[in-house]
Amino acid sequence: MSAVVEARGLVRRYLADGSSIRAVDGVDLVVEAGETVSVMGPSGCGKSTLLHLLGGLERPDAGELRLGGRRVDGFSETAWAVFRRRNVGFVFQAFHLVDELTAVENVELPALLLGVSRRAARRRAMDLLERLAVAGRAGQLPDRLSGGERQRVAVARALVNEPLVVLADEPTGNLDSRATGEILKLFAELRQAGQALLIVTHDARVASTADRLLRMRDGAIVAQTRLGSGASAAGILAGLADLGGEG
Amino acid sequence: MSLLAKEPAHGYELRQRLGTALGPAGGALNPGQVYVTLSRLERAGLVRAVEVAQPSHPDKKVYELTAPGRERVEQWLADVTWSKVAPVEFHLKLVIAAATGLADPVALVDTQRLELLRQLHQLQELAVAEPADSDGVLLLEGASLRLQADIRWLEACERRWVERGSP
Amino acid sequence: MRSLRLAARLARGNLRRRPAQALLLLLALTIATGVLGVAASVYGSADAPWDRVWRATRGFHVSLGVYHPPDEPGNRAFVQELRRRAARLATAPGVVGAGGPWTHLYGSIAVPGGEEDLTAEIRDPGPYAVDQPLVTSGRWLGEGGGVVLESGLAATLDVGPGDTVTIQGRPVPVRGVASTVSRGRFPLSRPAQVWVTSETARQLRDLGMTEEGFELQLRLADPGDAAGFVAAHRSLEATDPSSSVISYLETWQQRRADSHSDIDILAGTLFAAGGLIAILTVATAAVLIAGRMATQVRQVGTLKAVGVTPRQIVLVLLVEHLAIAAGATLLGLGIGRLLAPRVAETSVTVLGTPEPPPLTWGRVAIVAAVAFTVVLLGTIRPALRGIRQSTLRSLVAGPRPPRRPGRLGRLAASLGLPLPGVLGLRSGWRRPGRLLVNAAGLLLGVAMIVVALALRDSLDLLSLRPAEPGHAASDAAVAVLYDQIRAVIFATAGLLLALATINAIIVATFAARDAARNHAVLRAVGATPRQTVIALVVSQLGACAVAVVVGIPLGLGLWSLMEGGDLPEVGVSTSSLLLVAVAVPVAFAAIVSVPARLLARHPVAPLLTYE
Fold first, then answer.
1. Secondary-structure percent of chain B, ordered helix, strand, coil, rounded to 5
2. Among residues C67, C575, C595, C597, which is most buried (max CB within 10 A)?
3. How far is CA C40 from CA A28, A39, A181, B102, C225, in A?
4. Within the 166-225 window of chain A, which residues sit less than 8 Å (CB to CB) from chain C?
């Protein structure tokens, strides 16, 4: 399996109060095709910055980054924009839909930027909205949509050009429990469809849906585990029935 | 028994230490229970009673850990099984680990949390496999919520013990 | 009262903390008040010197002038009758002194460029109870012949005592130069004037000068009531239907008012220019004030804690900006007093050095009124919004929520315009009120360009007109005056353009800030920085389009009001108008792209992070 995202030694520094802080301090990270990876850590650990670096919203001060095999850390703003259209989808905590465009117009935006014809872009957008069960709200402006609906529109927008990877920054941070469940179900479907997904979060429920979990602290990855193995279904069900031993 | 790992103790002192470690929850401890447990442990060969001479009092019986006893404590610390009384027991683990130096509390938290996350992962996979309107989903959701609560508690533990650890 | 004091304190604090916007507004306002201040100090700056000469020469309070065309001897009888009546007038009640009647001869004098009409006033040697001309060089009339030139004539011919002038083709020696207030200074007042003795007059008559009338000058016991005296003796202005004799009475106030046409025209032009600049400043002020209010309201949390209501915010806003208006007024009046003498010195009609008149409350009030009106007009919309909202929260909701794309949006999309263009158009039409205000600012500039183009053609035509015989020097002087006016108008047009440019930049900067989040989102989904710049520029072009479409006809309309009279009527060619219609949007787009590009360089990530 080829790696969709390959980062080596990423460093991002900030100047604060005269001294230089390393928000991301030598991070190595790999996301394989079809994999869901979550990055967990306390606030201020640099996980959002890491996500920005992987998507080109910020430029690393050192290190290498490859997306889909292409070396991207030296890209200019314009080159990144062109690359991002086709290959990266973003999902943000604050949804970040363009507030003067309707839902479907928001979704077709990356396709139009890519040069897809208006009709084809509209069709792709409507198809995605159908799959995500928000087609009924296609003609509404974002401020008329609920949080869960907005995030689903955002996910649709991220998927419209079939990107290499979807980068999600606290995607359920602004959602209630029910909407969170819906989004997680959505992510599970994406996983089954083979979409590579990187989720940055501090929520255990969200992080535990991944195939692989990375823990981050003070700008560095401190632990990495596979979540798919370990506790068995039987063990859990037994625990539920309160058949556990004594302390 | 793990309380003995720190240092050999008299039965009464033991009860005191237990009380301190457990805080308000320790008030419910039955004093007689401590001695009964001690005798059982002695029979199992995990503790040993030693007579200590005291200047103005009759000799005191002091208990200390045997080598197999110590091994058992270490095993217990490393066990990640999570049962219904887990929080109390885990709390004790952390206190003892810090006091005895047998394990790093922060590392214990990390390991336990990882285990819980794995369980959460499996729960969610089970939930996804269930048809949407089945009643079993409710049960899974209940377990999921409890696990999430425990994980949050573990993070609080981590914060406290990281603080304690840093100078 | 307490809230007012609180408001004043908050206003002072605000002004100190974020001075940039306040300074910008002060600058823009001061340009308008400065021009008005110069106008207010130029207008009437010739009065003091005139008064001085008037007093020094025992100037008239009422004068009676009788004129008949030089070649109509048939008026003789009527003129004699008027002479008799004039003699009687000299002894009328209220009269304390009389000068004349002095006969006037009509002829011509050689001036650079040709010939100029000349009046020779015949005087006995004097002294005179009224109008004793002030000799500035040489001697007054007396033994030895020669003529005394009026000071303006001497200055135009650049001659002095001992030189000769050519009257009726013959050289005549100059005896002296004198000033008087009985007529305006040559060359803007015509005809030219010399004083001669009766001896010299005989010689001039032999040379061909003819009698054209006489003048009687009176001093009254009550100079203030000169108008009443004239009213009482209106009968002297009677005309005889059988003759073409003109007789009229004039008060000294009327004469003073008529003596300084160039000062008056200059002041009038500056007032108009100041007014136009002020109108344009309203648009700038509106944008600056709205932006200021937005930044203030963003500190909602702190304000709510202090217990501030929307009304109080509006109050603070008003206090702040009225203070700025007051500052601009003072600065403008100060600039006016400084610059006015230098501007007025270019006048050829002033009898001496021009002095800015004392600042009456009236003049101060005009400048202040303009400044305060501009600020109030700029504050209206944000203030109304503030009052109407009942809670600060609703203020924070910001601009009206976006509406579904209207027909225009769909039209733009279906036209197949590139995506950034479509987004820009949609964004631009979202706030029609703001668009109209910005268009209003621009369209004055466009209208002035059209007017300036027409005026240039018209003044060119004027200078091509052959001078009338006998008006060589005076026409030349008028041409100089028009050149000055033209310079003022072009300077004003340039200033308006500069202001419009500043306004466009300010508006574009605020628009870019408002759009920053949306543009960050666009960048995140793959729009290049250049595409977001294009979107922003297109969003501003709407106002420019309205400005061009309305401004060009407005300019043509303004010109049609101005032309005629002395200004030859002239049209503006279609090609020029087309050039304006194309050049203005192109220049506008170029100007607006500068702040757009600068703001596009800002990092995108912070706008997308949730804190």
1. 70, 10, 20
2. C595
3. 74, 72, 74, 93, 27
4. 169-170, 173-174
Instruction: Please count the other Cβ atoms lying within 10 Å of the Cβ belonging to residue B75.
Output: 9
Domain ranges of chain A: 35-59+76-228
Q: For the beta carbon of residue C586, count every other beta carbon within 10 angstroms.
A: 10
Query: With 70 as the cut, is the pLDDT of residue C1 above it?
Result: no
> In sequence order, what DSSP letters do the residues of C84-119 get, joined into one string?
HHHHHHTTSTTEEEEEEEEEEEEEEEEETTEEEEEE
Within this chain, do residues B166 and B86 fall inside the same structural domain, yes or no? yes
Kindly identify which residue of chain A lies nearest to residue C604, measuring between CA atoms.
A57
Q: DSSP for A174-197?
A: TS-HHHHHHHHHHHHHHHHHT-EE
Q: Which amino acid is at C89?
A: L
Between chains, do A85 and C517 touch, taking CB under 8 Å as contact? Answer: no
Query: Does the beta carbon of A75 lie under 8 angstroms from any beta carbon of chain C?
Result: no
Q: Scanning the structure block, which residue is given the tokens 């609560």?
A: B149
DSSP-derived pairing of the beta strands A3-16 and A62-67: antiparallel
Q: Decide if C405 contacts A102 (C-beta within 8 A).
A: yes
Nearest alpha carbon to residue C24 among C420, C291, C253, C416: C291
> C419: distance to nearest CA of chain A, Å?
7
Residue contact B120–A205, C-beta within 8 A: yes
Structural domain boundaries enclosing B60: 1-72
What are the sequence ranges of the domains in chain C? 1-46+260-398, 51-258, 404-611
Nearest to A100 among C427, C527, C610 (CB): C427
Q: Can you give the pLDDT at residue A65? A: 95
Q: How far is A25 from chain B (nearest CA, A)?
A: 20
Q: Where are the beta strands (DSSP E) in C160-220?
A: 164-167, 170-179, 192-196, 210-220
| Nearest CB to B85 within list A210, A235, A247 | A247
Number of domains into which chain B is organized: 2
| Same-domain check for residues B68 and B103 | no
Based on the domain organization, do B59 and B129 belong to the same domain? no
User: The tokens of C241 are what?
Assistant: 């239907």
- Which one of B72, B87, B120 terminates a domain? B72
Test A230 with B120 for CB contact under 8 angstroms. Answer: no
In angstroms, the separation between the Cα of residue C415 and the nearest Cα of chain A is: 11
Inter-chain residue contact C419 with A113, CB threshold 8 Å? yes
Task: Look at residues B28, B2, B24, B27 and name the one whose alpha carbon lies nearest to residue B14.
Answer: B2
Is there a contact between A84 and C521 if contact means CB atoms under 8 Å apart? no
Q: Which of B66-70, B116-120, C204-208, C273-277 has the lowest mean pLDDT?
A: B66-70
Q: State the burial class of residue C44 (Cβ atoms within 10 Å of its Cβ: 0-12, 13-18, 19+).
A: buried
Which helix (H) or strand (E) is A46 found in, with range?
none
In this structure, the answer to whether residues B87 and B163 fall within a common structural domain is yes
Q: Determine contact, residues C109/C166, Cβ cutoff 8 Å.
A: yes
> Per residue in C363-408, pLDDT tens?
899 899 999 988 888 877 766 666 665 555 544 445 555 666 666 6
* Candidates A81, A99, A143; nearest CB to C523: A81
B71: contact with A, CB 8 A cutoff: no
Q: Do B118 and A236 touch (CB under 8 A)?
A: no
pLDDT band for position A244 (50/70/90)? Answer: very low
CB contact under 8 Å between C524 and A141, yes or no, is no
Instruction: Decide if C386 contacts C310 (C-beta within 8 A).
Output: yes
Listed residues B72, B100, B133: the one ending a domain? B72
Q: How many residue pairs from chains A and B have C-beta atoms closer than 8 A? A: 70
Q: What's the pLDDT at C312?
A: 74
Assess whether B113 and B31 both reside in one domain: no
Spatial neighbors of C304 by CB under 8 A, at least 6 apart, are C392
* Topology of the domain covering A35-59+76-228: Rossmann fold (3.40.50)
Half-sphere exposure of B150 (CA within 13 A, CB side): 26
